[in-house]
Structures are given as C-alpha cells and as structure tokens.
Design brief:
19% helix; 4 helices; alpha+beta
C-alpha cells in the first residue's frame, strides 16, 4: 500500500479544471508550455513576454522548468509540495508567492485524490537566483 504513495508511476498530472479556470481568471495566461499532449518542447521555446501557466511533468526535470521562470513576464506553476528536494530550496523558496493548496487535488478525471500535497508558485518577472 505505501509503495503506491511514494511511487513515480506517472509524471503527468492533468490540472483540475476548476483550479485551471480560477488561475486563468486571476493571471490571464498567454502560454502553456507543457500541455498533456505537447506539440512543441516547452523548455526549448521562448517564454519572453508571456504570462505562463506551467504544470510540468513531476519527475526529476522540475528544476529545468522552474529555471525558465525569469524569461516570462509572469510564471505560475502547479507542483507537488516537495519541500525536502533540491529544486524546492533552489527555486521554489525564491518564488514571489508560495500558495500551499488545502487538501489533496484530484487531477484530471481521477476518482482519487493525489498521493501528495500541491503548491502554486508565482514568479512575477524576478529571476530566481
């Protein structure tokens, strides 16, 4: 049972619609560089001047996605709240805003809640050092 809680069975977690709508209304996004079915590599494209919403794959590559934040006018990320990781301390702690979400999200059309807490990180045009 606990194996499932800590597994990396999937790196892709579809944003809950209500959360995506609420964030979209608040921030007026112009770019989603990592939709579930990407047509282009969101890490290779420019984010300059965009208001970015990013729900990246939740694997070892999270730091690379967070490193792109300075390119954007605004970058908002939905991520697992993994406060014990290197990427958390190098990037998340430098966000303009850190919003811990209450409870566990139900991603996509899932019947069950995620096995981890989630966070929204907001970067407002400042470089995470």
């Amino acid at each position: 049972m606990t194996r499932v809680l800590f597994s990396a069975a999937s790196e892709h977690w579809a944003t809950p619609r209500a959360l995506r709508r609420a964030l979209g209304r608040e921030f007026r996004f112009t770019l989603d560089p990592c939709p579930l079915k990407p047509q282009r590599d969101g890490l290779r494209r420019s984010w300059r001047g965009h208001r970015v919403y990013c729900n990246p794959p939740y694997g070892r590559g999270i730091a690379a996605w967070l490193a792109k934040a300075p390119e954007a006018q605004l970058a908002v990320y939905l991520l697992p709240a993994r406060t014990d990781t290197k990427w958390w301390h190098e990037y998340a702690m430098r966000a303009t805003e850190i919003r811990f979400l209450r409870g566990r999200l139900k991603f996509g059309g899932s019947k069950n809640s995620a096995p981890f807490p989630s966070v929204v990180l907001v970067y407002r045009g400042e470089r995470p050092a």
